[in-house]
Amino acid sequence: MANLKGKTAIITGASSGIGQSIAEHLAQEGANVVLAARRKERLEELAKSIQNETSVQTKVIETDVTNQKDMENLVKETKETFSSVDILVNNAGVMLLSFLKNDKVEEWEKMVDVNVKGVLFGIHSVLPTMLEQDTGHVINVSSVAGHEVFPTSSVYSATKYAVRALSMGMEKELSKTGVRVTNISPGAVSTELPEHITDEEVISMFEDRKGRVTLEADDIARSVVYAVTQPEYVNVNEVMVRPLQKK
Ligand code: NDP
């Protein structure tokens, strides 16, 4: 397995859930981590705890992934501090599940902005650097909902299918360069993600589903570590992880 010592990883959405766990796991493997999200205090707490537990360097950069300038600045500051960008984890996302008939058009727009434009701005900001370095690894966090559509997930799924399409396109376009791409498709993971849902019908459906087995954020972080620690010529393009329902 390749060592991450001295490598630099940017993780968007590192202030909670899967992104936080990915940052912790990459740091444990020796990567310097750049923590990006809007909630700066949570990023600073995470940076402190990583510094207590590892010897890697951390950097906190308050970032709104929907803002192109923020994303460009995220990569620029990372390069200025660490001189290379080896890994970008496009993880930030929102899942505002709703029925189309309930017409939550502002939430549709928000999901497109964060889940699709955020990932695009990440690619835009990092790709020139990775191509110039002729090495790098982009991890895009899609979802099982990027492989199938559920009632209430039409728009969320549309954004996650888009993320997967971008991953697939990058794999084809970049296969003769040193830039690798991995699309991660988690099933249900226990995080803050569903807490932002406002559609009352969906909220009561979630109440009914209480007791179903979910994954932990760590389960997804380990698959990221697997992908980024393979030998340089191994391009792990897709990882899908679901929980068993065995109790
Ligand atoms: P959380 O709600 O715990 O984390 C979401 C993260 O995204 C937060 O750190 C949040 O940070 C960040 N974020 C949201 N909007 C923005 C923004 N505009 N700019 C920057 N950061 C933003 O959820 P998860 O950890 O579960 O979600 C992480 C990813 O995993 C998402 O892409 C999600 O779609 C995907 N996923 C999750 C699954 C699950 O069951 N949990 C299943 C499949 C995929 P802040 O608010 O501080 O900006």
How would you describe what is shown here?
The chain is of the alpha/beta class and 247 residues long. The chain has one domain: 3-Layer(aba) Sandwich (Rossmann fold), CATH 3.40.50.720. Helices cover 45% and strands 15% of the residues. It has seven helices and seven strands. The protein has a seven-stranded parallel sheet with strand order 3-2-1-4-5-6-7, sandwiched between helices. The relative contact order is 0.16. The mean pLDDT is 97. Bound molecules: NADPH dihydro-nicotinamide-adenine-dinucleotide phosphate. The site of NADPH dihydro-nicotinamide-adenine-dinucleotide phosphate has 28 residues, from helix 1. NADPH dihydro-nicotinamide-adenine-dinucleotide phosphate binds next to helix 1.
Mean pLDDT figure: 97
Uncertain spans, ≥5 residues at pLDDT below 50?
none
- Number of distinct helices: 7
Which CATH first-tier class would you pick? Alpha Beta
Q: Determine Rg (CA atoms, Å).
A: 17 Å
Class inferred from helices and paired strands: alpha/beta
How is the CATH topology named?
Rossmann fold
**Name of the CATH homologous superfamily:** NAD(P)-binding Rossmann-like Domain
What topology, given as strand order, has the largest sheet? 3-2-1-4-5-6-7
Helix content: 40-55%
**CATH-derived architecture:** 3-Layer(aba) Sandwich
N-to-C CA distance: 33 Å
Q: What pattern of helices and strands is seen along the backbone?
A: EHEHEHEHEHEHHE
